[in-house]
Amino acid sequence: MNPETRPPRWQRRAEARPQEVLEAALAVFVERGYASARLDEVARRAGVAKATLYLYYANKLELFKAVVRHALVDNLDEVARLQAAAGARPGREQLTFLLHAFMRRVAGSPLSGIPKLVMAEAGNFPELARFYHDEVIARGRAIICGTLARGIAAGEFRAVDVDYAWRVVIGPALLAIIWKHSFLAFEDRGMDFERHLAVHLDMLFNGLAAPDQKGTRDEP
Amino acid sequence: MNPETRPPRWQRRAEARPQEVLEAALAVFVERGYASARLDEVARRAGVAKATLYLYYANKLELFKAVVRHALVDNLDEVARLQAAAGARPGREQLTFLLHAFMRRVAGSPLSGIPKLVMAEAGNFPELARFYHDEVIARGRAIICGTLARGIAAGEFRAVDVDYAWRVVIGPALLAIIWKHSFLAFEDRGMDFERHLAVHLDMLFNGLAAPDQKGTRDEP
DNA sequence: GCTATAAATGACTCTTCAGTCACTTATAGC
DNA sequence: GCTATAAGTGACTGAAGAGTCATTTATAGC
After folding, report:
1. Where is the secretion signal located (chains A, B) (predicted)?
2. Which residues in chain B are contacts of A195 at CB distance < 8 A?
């Protein structure tokens, strides 16, 4: 054998490794949950040996926290951007924009596993759940509630109880992305997120009730 | 010491044990997930020794399956009862009845942990997730879709796409019970499930948009 | 090319539980 | 009361996987 034609057994890529490990770990944690996730599996998917993980993260828990923190930072950046972009447009347009951005940004990316992961592990890592609750959920809620309140004040929306309405607004979208990671494989036909969002928005603004349900029909 | 005043170290209660173990196991599995759940903890909460669990369930996996299967049977009974009770009433009344029953029956009981548990473990136990999907979700969906379709045919509901609308209908309710097991502890004020449902139903039927948003006001 | 050293590894240890088993004890039937 | 036995237990074992470490190897700088 020619030693010079044999490729190196590995490469030194100290800059790229942490990110790659994080991505592999996110996928494994989302699929299996914290306790069932095997670090051998994370290493395999990241293309390194298990011991290499420990060069970058002190232990499994620190890796887990880094995964969530990293995803969190991405989310917060996005939330801030949305908050700025939402501006003072009409409430309807604003909610449409927010939910579209949420679905496009989150639903299609590995990030979408984070809500499921945090919910599943809330009992095991309450500090993490609280962190997520306070930093992501509370901000998202504030944006939605603000938009709702302004819409109500402007006479654009009916006077719903915003403290409960915000969960009704985000519920179907959040459920859709949790669904994706749990049951999508069992659905005969897949789920079209665009279509889901379109139906969701239509029902959110216009309701289910036909407009002529007060006893008289205005149209044939 | 008087040997006759000393209470027995334990009692033989072969009829009650399995049920008690199942209840303790459900609580622990929901809180911690399958892999993190300790059988010592299950035994402690059921008031028995760990070895006693093995008198009634062959191993951890069988116990887990028994927990889900047991909860499933309860759910299916309920679903069948609802299906019968829903009858041929107007769609609006029917959906209100269904969601009320769902919230009252599920939200307040330990059963409410099952959806969270099954979602969290779907990656680890796909057969179980499929079972749940086919037996519980598919039936619930069929009931909602049927009600929607009949309401649309009767002109009571607008002609939404029922294949997507059903998730919008159940989404906020399902999210509420998942919430309860993950984030409720971090909310300043608790969540009033009755109030949540009231807001949910109001928005579901009437939508967010104020009725005078087409440019003209029909009523003062 | 040589060398220093950071990057990476494979084979190891040690802990944590799931699961077992020999033994104890409650209790039903005589 | 005695006894047979089912119900229950505490202390053990074995496996799996997190975490360690001595050794190997890629590569930057000279």
Report:
1. none
2. 161, 164
Nearest nucleotide relative to B54: CA against C1':
C19
Positions in chain A whose pLDDT score sits under 70 = 1-6, 86, 213-220
What would the DSSP string read from start to end of chain A? --TTTSPPS----TTTHHHHHHHHHHHHHHHH-TTT--HHHHHHHHTS-HHHHHHH-SSHHHHHHHHHHHHHHHHHHHHHHHHHHHTT--HHHHHHHHHHHHIIIIITSGGGHHHHHHHHHTTT-HHHHHHHIIIIIHHHHHHHHHHHHHHHHTTSB----HHHHHHHHHHHHHHHHHHHHHTGGG-SS---HHHHHHHHHHHHHH-SB-TT-SS--S--
Q: What is the pLDDT of residues B167-201, one digit of tens each?
A: 999 999 999 999 999 999 888 888 899 999 999 99
Q: Which nucleotide is nearest to A37 (CA to C1')?
A: D17
**How far is Cα B73 from Cα B19, in angstroms, rounded to an integer?**
14
pLDDT of res. A154: 95
Nearest 10 degrees: Cα torsion B85, B88, B93, B98: 40
CA distance B157 to chain A (A): 5
| Domain assignment present for B26 | no
Q: Which residue of A has its CA nearest to B123?
A: A31
- What does the pLDDT read at residue B8? 85
- Determine, yes or no, domain membership for A24: no
Any strand C atom closer than 7 Å to B61 CB: yes
Report the chain B residue with the minimal C-alpha distance to residue A204. Answer: B207
Please give the interface size between A and B, counted as residue pairs whose CB atoms are below 8 Å apart. Answer: 203
Instruction: Report the Cα A111 to chain-centroid distance in Å.
Output: 5
Residue A107: which CATH number? 1.10.357
Percent of chain B at pLDDT exceeding 90:
71
Residues of B in contact with A202 (CB under 8 A): 160
- The structural domain count of chain B equals 1
CA nearest to B170 within chain A? A172
Rounded distance between C-alpha atoms, residue A80 and residue A129, angstroms: 20
Residues of B with Cβ-Cβ distance to A120 under 8 angstroms: 33, 116, 119-120
Give the per-residue pLDDT at B213. 59
Q: Could you tell me the residue range of the domain that residue A146 belongs to?
A: 61-207
The answer to whether the C-beta of B39 is closer than 7 A to strand C is: yes
Q: Flag whether B23 is in a domain.
A: no
